Amino acid sequence: MATPSAGFTGPADLHLHSHQSDGTESPAEVMRQVHAHGIRTAALTDHDRSTGWAEAGDAAVALGMTFIPGMELSAKHEWRSVHVLGYLFDPENEALRAETDRIRGDRIGRAERIVRNIGRDYDLDWEDVVAQTNLDATVGRPHIADALIARGIVRDRTEAFDGILHPREGYYEPHYAPDPLTAVRLITQAGGVAVIAHPVTSGRDRMMPVPFIERLIAAGLGGFEIDHRENTEAGKRKLREIAAEHDLIITGSSDYHGSGKPNRPGENTTSDEMVARLIARGTGISPRYP
Ligand code: AMP
Ligand code: ZN
Ligand code: FE
Ligand code: FE
Fold first, then answer.
1. Which of 44, 46, 152, 194 is the residue whose CA sits 20 to 30 A from 178?
2. What is the average per-residue pLDDT within 132-155?
3. Nearest bound ligand to CA 83?
4. pLDDT the model gives residue 195
5. Average pLDDT for the chain
6. What's residue 6's pLDDT?
């Protein structure tokens, strides 16, 4: 078993979003918030980009925390949206960069299409979204939700996701995303550790079939995010079995989005042993230590 690296410190929350994607706070503010909730090891995992790492890392280290660079890569299996967390990969890796550029680029046109669809029935246009969005951000439905809130059409992001932004309402449009096998390979080839985020949410996405998960493991998958508020209890039990069978890493995280979601920093955490395994396995970039 790997031992913790020098400077490595306690309670870990390895899934956090800033306003580089759809969180509501700057990368530094996210680090201050998780620190205030007792977290001492933190990973910034914005969707499809790594641009918040420097700011978050500086803030984390100044607060005496260990910082683990990460990302939540959008993927798709059949009709399912699959999120693959990547940790400690080389941010300069060409293949991974090209893929994240493509996803982020396609997300913009997709968001415009959703807004056009909504605009047929509600008083909303693209300018409303631009007004609510950090122009550098990875654009997603949460930014459209913020525009709907500003227009007084919904009260909060949750109401938007339960209503207008839900695929059943007919305004939804998909965006380009790679197959999960490609996502796992890209992260792994960039020296990173691939961990499936919230693999067993109830309802819409459910779990990928076990034989397909086994193909992901053969392709280099490092682990599962098991302790996450959206995973079902039965699903967590199943994932723990698969993880034990294949000696995979298991993580627990909050998926904090600032005020954009009810998830609180540190509501789920990852054990020291699992953080040490993650650090031992990731070779694309080093964690930052206080
Ligand atoms: P998108 O990737 O554009 O389809 O949007 C999905 C993102 O919206 C995910 O990152 C979720 O974290 C976020 N999200 C999903 N449901 C909610 C919700 N009820 N409230 C706020 N954000 C949500
Ligand atoms: Zn998000
Ligand atoms: Fe996610
Ligand atoms: Fe997330």
1. 44
2. 95
3. 3
4. 99
5. 95
6. 53
Question: Which atom number of ligand 1 is nearest to the Cα of residue 156?
Answer: 20
How many structural domains is the chain composed of? Answer: 1
Q: Is residue 148 part of a domain?
A: yes
Give me the residues paired with residue 73 across strands: 84
**Residues recorded for the chain:** 290
Residue the block writes with tokens 């893929």: 99
CATH code, domain with 147: 1.10.150.650
Q: Are 243 and 209 in contact (CB under 8 A)?
A: no
Contact 17, 288 (CB under 8 A): no
Tell me how far apart the alpha carbons of residues 130 and 41 are, in angstroms, rounded to a whole number. 33
Q: What is the DSSP letter of 220?
A: T
199: in domain: no
The per-residue DSSP string of 243-286 comes to HHHHT-EEEE---BBTBTSSPPTTSS-B-HHHHHHHHHH--SS-
Helices (H), the chain: 27-36, 53-62, 94-119, 126-132, 141-150, 157-162, 180-189, 210-218, 233-246, 272-281
Give, for ligand 1, the residue of 141, 159, 171 to mutate: max count of ligand atoms closer than 8 Å to Cβ.
141
pLDDT tens digits, one per residue of 169-216: 999 999 999 999 999 999 999 999 999 999 999 876 689 999 999 999
The pick from 161, 176, 253 for probing ligand 1's pocket by mutation, whose C-beta has the most ligand atoms within 8 angstroms, reads 161
Structural domain that includes position 116: 108-169
Give me the DSSP letters along 47-75: BT--TTHHHHHHHHHHTT-EEEEEEEEEE
Has residue 131 been placed in a domain? yes
pTM here?
A: 0.96
255 CA closest ligand 1 atom index: 12
> For the CA atoms of the chain, what is the radius of gyration?
18
